[in-house]
DNA sequence: TTCGACGTTTCACGAACATCGAACAAGGAG
DNA sequence: CTCCTTGTTCGATGTTCGTGAAACGTCGAA
């Protein structure tokens, strides 16, 4: 892959408030966080976002650099996950308050995951070839 | 005064989450909110901020436009106040979480109020001329 | 090996932003 | 009236940000 060269996850203590607020200052990224709020890990082929591939990559990097998400690589595919625990340990209540607010106003509502496929995650390797919608 | 022409306070319902997060995405503005967090109204001659006059005016406008603060004019002087109630009614817990987090990391710690003068507020018109330190 | 799917990086561009100094407006004090 | 104080507005400047297209790297399958 592009090697994900500059990819680094900040330690829990290194997470900066301003960086978090800055990362959350965008409807698309708030939408991504909302999608991930159920704690499930998502491959970002699953993510439905109305932007170009490269822009999505950029947004996911901002979230990762801010310490909001964790990224894992498996072969050629990548997976995101919310760092809910780390975030709540460092800034108690912040993430929850933002998620509540975002839900009220439907901020980032245009972001979603692929429909159908109730269990489309990393836990299936072979087997049924999984028809894409 | 400059008449404060474009000054408008959004209604409580009009307060936008993205605008609030955007307004809070700056150490100086976070510092201003921290100073106002005690609920006291402050004249912005009291505010000690390491920026130029016009820049402070700008930051206070951003906070006001986002619905975070309320501004009042008395003669040639202006006063700010946190809209804690409105904010908490609309986005419960958000402001508190941000303030807690900002306090932990001392974000915006370089913002303060004039020292001494424990009761420097709008409730004194005449009387003692109030020596400026 | 060749091909295709997937994600990253680079580059460029326009918009938004933070900052300052200068010019301006409105009151208050003399 | 003339200053002085206070705050706004207006460029100007440099920075950051969101965006997409194109090129690239990597992996798995044919």
Structure explained in plain terms:
The structure is a homodimer of 133-residue chains. Chain A is of the alpha+beta class and 133 residues long. Chain A has one domain: Winged helix-like DNA-binding domain superfamily/Winged helix DNA-binding domain (Arc Repressor Mutant, subunit A), CATH 1.10.10. Helices cover 37% and strands 14% of the residues of chain A. In chain A, the strands form two sheets. The first copy, chain A, has a three-stranded antiparallel beta sheet with strand order 1-4-3, covered by helices on one side. A two-stranded antiparallel ribbon of chain A has the order 2-5. The longest helix of chain A is centred in the middle third of the chain and has 13 residues. The first copy, chain A, is globular and about 30 Å long. The two termini of chain A are 26 Å apart. The C terminus of chain A is likely disordered. At the A-B interface, helix 1 and helix 5 of A face helix 1 and helix 5 of B. Chain A binds a DNA duplex (30 and 30 nucleotides) through helix 3.
Distance between the ends of chain A: 26 Å
- Structural class per helix/strand content of chain A? alpha+beta
Arrangement of strands in the largest sheet of chain A? 1-4-3
The domain count of chain A comes to: 1
The overall pLDDT of chain A, averaged over residues, is 84
How many helix segments of chain A? Answer: 5
Beta-strand content of chain A: 5-15%
Proper CATH architecture of chain A: Orthogonal Bundle
Unreliable stretches covering 5 or more consecutive residues of chain A? 117-133
The CATH topology of chain A is Arc Repressor Mutant, subunit A
Largest beta sheet of chain A, briefly?
A: 3 strands, antiparallel
Oligomerization:
homodimer
Q: Tell me the name of the CATH homologous superfamily of chain A.
A: Winged helix-like DNA-binding domain superfamily/Winged helix DNA-binding domain
Q: Secondary-structure element order of chain A, as H and E?
A: HHEEHEEHHE
- Rg from Cα of chain A: 15 Å
Query: Based on CA inertia axes, which overall geometry of chain A fits?
Result: globular
């Amino acid at each position: 892959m592009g090697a994900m060269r500059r990819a680094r996850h900040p330690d829990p203590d290194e997470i900066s408030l301003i960086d978090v607020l800055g990362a959350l200052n965008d409807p698309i990224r708030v939408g991504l966080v909302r999608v991930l709020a159920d704690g499930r890990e998502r491959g970002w082929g699953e993510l439905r976002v109305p932007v170009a591939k490269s822009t999505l990559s950029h947004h996911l990097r901002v979230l990762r650099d801010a310490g909001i998400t964790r990224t894992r690589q498996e072969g050629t595919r990548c997976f995101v996950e919310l760092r809910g625990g780390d975030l709540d340990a460092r800034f108690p209540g912040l993430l929850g308050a933002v998620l509540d607010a975002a839900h009220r106003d439907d901020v980032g509502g245009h972001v979603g995951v692929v429909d159908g496929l109730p269990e489309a995650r990393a836990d299936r390797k072979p087997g049924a070839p999984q028809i894409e919608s």
